[in-house]
Design goal:
Elements: E1 2-9, H1 13-25, E2 31-34, H2 43-46, H3 58-61, H4 77-90, E3 97-98, E4 101-109, E5 114-121, E6 131-138, E7 162-164, E8 179-183, H5 187-197, E9 202-207, E10 213-216, H6 221-229, H7 232-256, H8 258-270, H9 275-281, E11 294-297, H10 300-306, E12 310-314, E13 317-320, E14 324-327, E15 332-334, E16 337-340, E17 353-356, E18 359-360, E19 368-369, E20 373-374, E21 380-382, H11 391-412, E22 416-419, H12 440-443, H13 464-473, E23 481-484, H14 486-489
Parallel strand pairs: 1-2, 1-6, 2-3, 4-17, 6-21, 7-16, 8-9, 8-16, 9-12, 10-11
Antiparallel strand pairs: 4-5, 5-6, 13-14, 14-15, 17-18, 19-20, 22-23
Helix pairs in contact: 1-11, 5-10, 6-7, 7-8, 11-13
Length: about 500
C-alpha cells in the first residue's frame, strides 16, 4: 500500500496548479495525483467540439505563477491544454500523476491520522491497491465527466439524424452542408454556432429563454503592450489586477443597480443586432449575473446571425420528428444534426463516498469552512472556483491555503486539522452553498452540497477580494479550525 503526505485528485487545471504550488512551497512533501482519465488537462482535454474556448480571459484563468504570453486573451481549448501541459512539465509534475485511477471513496481514521483511498482502474486493468495519505486535496472539478445533463426529448426515437451532447462529440462527425440545431443558450451553444456556421447549410440556436451576451475582443491590447515594455511577470500581474478589478466592479454593479446594468448590456447588443431581434432573443427575464453572462469574442455570434448562416429561435420543444424539431408555436426546424447543449450534471467531490471513523459523511449536513473544507471532516480540502469570475482565482487561493496549512501543522506537530462549529456558531442562520445564482444546473443539486452560515469562516463567498483576506491573510488559528494529533491522545 503506497503512502503519500498529500494526494491530489484530478489532473486538470486545478490539480496541476495545486501540485505546482505544493512543489514550490512544500518541497519536502511527497504527493501523488490520481487522474481517472488517461491524459491530463481535465475539461480542456475532454471537450473536443468545434470552437472550444474559455469564456474567461487567460490573465485571470491562468495561474498566478505562470504568465500567459499568447496574443489572444480569450484562448481556444488546445492553447489552454498546451498551457496546462507546460506548467506540469516546467515544475516536474507529470511524473507524480497516476493515470486511469478513479477515486471511488475515502475513509479517515483518527487512530492512524490518515485517509485510505479506494481506487479503481479505468483502463480495464487489475484493481489497484488502496492508497493512504495525510491530507486529501480534491481537484476533481464540479461535474460528471461521464454523464452530461441530457434530458430525453419527446419523439427522440423518430428522429433520423444524429443527436448527441457536446461533451460526447463524435470524432468523425461531418457537418459540412448539413442543417444543424443546437439546443441551449449557454456558453457551449454560443461557441458552437459561430464556429460551425461557415461549413453548415444553416445552423440554429434553439433556446427556451434568452441569456445575457457580452462581446469583447479576444485580444487584450493593454496586456500585449505591457508585455513588450515590461518583464512577463510584471506585465501579467498588472493585467491580472486590472481584469480582476473590472470583473469585481461589474459584478458588484449588477447587485446594486441591476436595471442600469441590464440597459447597458442590451444597448451593446443593439449595436450589432436589430432592436426586434434583441428584444425577442437577447433580453433575459432575470437580472444580470443571476445566471452567468456569456462572453463571445469579436462579436462572432452576432456576425454569424447577420450573415444569414445562423439564426436564433426562442421557443419550447413539442417533439422531435423524423426530419427535425416541432415547436410549441407550430414552427418546424429541419435538422440533420441536433446538438443538445443542455448543460452539466454537478457532482459533490467527484461523486466519491467518504467516511470519518467508520461513519458515512452526509455533506448536506455539514457547513462549508471558507468554501474549501467541511465541518467535522478532517484533512480534506476541495477546490471549487467562482461562478462570477475565473475558476483559477479561487483555485490558486485554495492551493496557497493548503500549503500554509501543511506548514502550520508541521510547526505545531499536529496531524489533524478539522473545522468545528464554535459555541457561538451553533444555531446560526443557514444558507445555500451558493446564493443569488439561479441556473438550472445549480438548482438541481444545491440540496446535495454543504450549507454555509451567516458569518466567517462558515462562508462560501463569491468575492475574490474578500476571499483574499479570509483565506490568504486571516490567521489559521481562528477557534474554528482545530489542530491536534489524535494518536497522541490515544
Amino acid at each position: 500500500m503506497s503512502h503519500f503526505d498529500v494526494v491530489i485528485v484530478g489532473a486538470g487545471l486545478s490539480g496541476i496548479g495545486a501540485a505546482c504550488h505544493l512543489q514550490q512551497r512544500c518541497p519536502g512533501k511527497s504527493y501523488a495525483i490520481l487522474e481517472a482519465r488517461s491524459e491530463l488537462g481535465g475539461t480542456w482535454d475532454l471537450y473536443r467540439y468545434p470552437g472550444i474556448r474559455s469564456d474567461s480571459d487567460m490573465h485571470t484563468l491562468g495561474y498566478s505563477f505562470k504568465p500567459w504570453k499568447a496574443e489572444k486573451a480569450i484562448a481556444d481549448g488546445p492553447s489552454i491544454l498546451a498551457y496546462v501541459n507546460e506548467a506540469a512539465d516546467e515544475h516536474g509534475v507529470r511524473k507524480h500523476i497516476q493515470f486511469d485511477r478513479k477515486v471511488e471513496g475515502a475513509s479517515w481514521s483518527s487512530d492512524e491520522a490518515r485517509w485510505t483511498i479506494d481506487v479503481a482502474a479505468t483502463d480495464g486493468g487489475p484493481a489497484p491497491e488502496p492508497i493512504t495519505c495525510n491530507l486529501l486535496l480534491m481537484c476533481s472539478g464540479y461535474y460528471s465527466y461521464d454523464e452530461p445533463h441530457r434530458p430525453e426529448f419527446p419523439g427522440e426515437a423518430d428522429f433520423e439524424g444524429e443527436l448527441f451532447h457536446p461533451q460526447l462529440w463524435p470524432e468523425d462527425l461531418d457537418y459540412r452542408g448539413k442543417r444543424v440545431v443546437v439546443i441551449g443558450s449557454g456558453a457551449t451553444a454560443m461557441t458552437l454556432v459561430p464556429a460551425m456556421a461557415e461549413e453548415t447549410e444553416h445552423i440554429t440556436m434553439l433556446q427556451r429563454s434568452p441569456t445575457y451576451v457580452v462581446s469583447r475582443p479576444d485580444v487584450d491590447a493593454l496586456a500585449n503592450r505591457l508585455r513588450r515594455l515590461l518583464p512577463d511577470r510584471i506585465a501579467y500581474a498588472i493585467t491580472r489586477w486590472k481584469n480582476v478589478t473590472l470583473q469585481n466592479l461589474l459584478y458588484r454593479r449588477t447587485r446594486v443597480a441591476p436595471e442600469k446594468v441590464k440597459a447597458f448590456l442590451l444597448k451593446q447588443v443593439r449595436k450589432h443586432l436589430g432592436r426586434e431581434t434583441v428584444e425577442k432573443h437577447f433580453t433575459p427575464r432575470y437580472d444580470p449575473w443571476d445566471e452567468r453572462l456569456c462572453l463571445i469574442p469579436n462579436a462572432d455570434l452576432f456576425e454569424a446571425i447577420n450573415s444569414g448562416k445562423a439564426s436564433v429561435v426562442t421557443d419550447h420543444i413539442e417533439t422531435l420528428t423524423k426530419k427535425g424539431i416541432r415547436l410549441r408555436s407550430g414552427e418546424e426546424l429541419d435538422a440533420d444534426i441536433i446538438v443538445a447543449a443542455t448543460g452539466l450534471n454537478l457532482k459533490v467531490l467527484g461523486g466519491a463516498r467518504f467516511e470519518v471513523d467508520g461513519e458515512p459523511v452526509n455533506f448536506p449536513e455539514t457547513f462549508t469552512y471558507k468554501g474549501m473544507m467541511y465541518s467535522d471532516v478532517p484533512n480534506l480540502i476541495q477546490t471549487f472556483g467562482y461562478i462570477n469570475a475565473s475558476w483559477t482565482l479561487r483555485a490558486d487561493l485554495t492551493a496557497e491555503y493548503t500549503c500554509r496549512l501543511i506548514d502550520h501543522m508541521d510547526a505545531k506537530g499536529a496531524t489533524r486539522a478539522v473545522p468545528r462549529l464554535r459555541d457561538e456558531d451553533r444555531g446560526m442562520q443557514t444558507r445555500q452553498w451558493i446564493e443569488d445564482f439561479t441556473p438550472n444546473y445549480m438548482k438541481r443539486v444545491m440540496h446535495l452540497f454543504p450549507k454555509q452560515g451567516d458569518r466567517e469562516p462558515w462562508l462560501n463567498t463569491q468575492d475574490y477580494r474578500r476571499d483574499r483576506k479570509m483565506i490568504r491573510k486571516a490567521p489559521l488559528e481562528d477557534g474554528a479550525l482545530i489542530f491536534d494529533d489524535p494518536r497522541a491522545g490515544a
